[in-house]
Amino acid sequence: NSVVLVTGGSGLVGKAIKYVVENGSGCKNEKWVFASSKDGDLTDRASTEAMFLKYKPTHVIHLAAKVGGLFGNLSANLEFLRKNLEINDNVLFMAHKTGVQHVVSCLSTCIFPDKTSYPINETMVHNGPPHDSNYGYSYAKRMIDILNRGYNREHGRNYTSIIPTNVFGPDDNFNVQEGHVLPGLIHKIYKAKEEGYDLKSNTSKPFTVWGTGKPRRQFIYSRDLARLIIWVLREYKETEPIILSVGEEDEVSIKEAAEQVAIAMEFKNGFIFDTEKSDGQYKKTADNAKLRKYLPDFKFTPFPIALKETCDWFVENYETARK
Ligand code: NAP
Ligand code: GDP
């Protein structure tokens, strides 16, 4: 029997895994534990050890991290670096010390080199400096791959990593200053709708998209990502990372994404761009050929449907959502 410990079990991706496990993907011989920071501070070695001794996992999905969107990263790169280095070293060391054979940790497509050729694949993680806007998060995440190789080479551990592209879904962080673009835009539209029609100026409020709207992103629905992570845990045996992303053909500009969010929120007052705000990395187009080789028939939820489910979730859970 397996005990799967999910660190970061209370976050966007952790909650999606919980949803998928509880809705049919659980196995009888697996006990799942979804841990949050209330179960222990993973930046602290003793607290991490206590968590491993308490739950005695046989498998770990390691998601816990200090996570933020472009503007969260820009304001606190050093903190992103230090916290994530501490969390990752503590989790992998304690997994090894307590005999966990299999760990799946989470990288991100934003850690890839900024100056590169496209599409980016799994062999290119360390090929050059990441985009300056999120250097702290990126270098800390890159070290997970180095740690995995060390635990594999020196101790025969099966510690691997996944590289998801931009994730969105229910339970995201909808805080506009700290979070990612889609939850930020959903929240901004919610507010613009609340403020509604302005009698004084005889206008309805548009919402504001930061930057020029030209950068391009691949978005993955958290519940699709959750299904893929469970597959990785059960079936993927390589130490090398694997990109978990929709195809290159599904990449959209921020402007197109804003249009789709407006449709999903049934918002008709349009949007404006604040070009004083940063665009961040122009693109980080990732190649999902390796994933497609393993799972040629995997079906991603169409972007408009996943967005609609996310917007509906936010409206229904407005009072308790992270914002
Ligand atoms: P999230 O919603 O911000 O959740 C972060 C999780 O980490 C929460 O469960 C949080 O616990 C936990 N955590 C943070 N600091 C901790 C600490 N010191 N000790 C213990 N737990 C701690 O993040 P997410 O979006 O689900 O991200 C999950 C993973 O996916 C991360 O590794 C992230 O780097 C990666 N990723 C995310 C994206 C994206 O677009 N969101 C894209 C690519 C990769 P509390 O709830 O108790 O605070
Ligand atoms: P990234 O993919 O790691 O860069 O992070 P984000 O999810 O924060 O996306 C950043 C991109 O979306 C940049 O081009 C921003 O200029 C643009 N953007 C537009 N509006 C927003 C917003 O309200 N919040 C965020 N975080 N980004 C926005």
List the helices and strands and how they pair.
Elements: E1 2-7, H1 12-25, E2 30-34, H2 45-55, E3 59-62, H3 70-75, H4 77-97, E4 102-106, H5 135-155, E5 158-164, E6 166-168, H6 181-195, E7 197-198, E8 203-204, E9 207-210, E10 216-217, E11 219-221, H7 222-235, E12 242-244, E13 252-253, H8 254-264, E14 271-274, H9 289-294, H10 303-316
Parallel strand pairs: 1-2, 1-3, 3-4, 4-5, 5-12, 6-11, 9-14
Antiparallel strand pairs: 7-8, 10-13
Guanosine-5'-diphosphate binds at residues 69-71, 110, 166, 176, 180-181, 184-185, 209-211, 215, 217, 254, 277-281.
Structure, explained:
The chain is of the alpha/beta class and 323 residues long. It has a domain at 2-168 and 218-248 and 284-301: Rossmann fold. Helices cover 41% and strands 16% of the residues. It has ten helices and 14 strands. It has helices at residues 12-25, 45-55, 70-75, 77-97, 135-155, 181-195, 222-235, 254-264, 289-294, 303-316; strands spanning 2-7, 30-34, 59-62, 102-106, 158-164, 166-168, 197-198, 203-204, 207-210, 216-217, 219-221, 242-244, 252-253, 271-274. A six-stranded parallel β-sheet has the order 2-1-3-4-5-12, with helices on both faces. Strands 6-11 form a two-stranded parallel sheet. Strands 7-8 form a two-stranded antiparallel ribbon. A hairpin with a 4-residue loop joins strand 7 and strand 8. Helix 2 (45-55) packs across helix 4 (77-97) and helix 6 (181-195) crosses helix 8. It is globular and about 70 Å long. The mean pLDDT is 96.
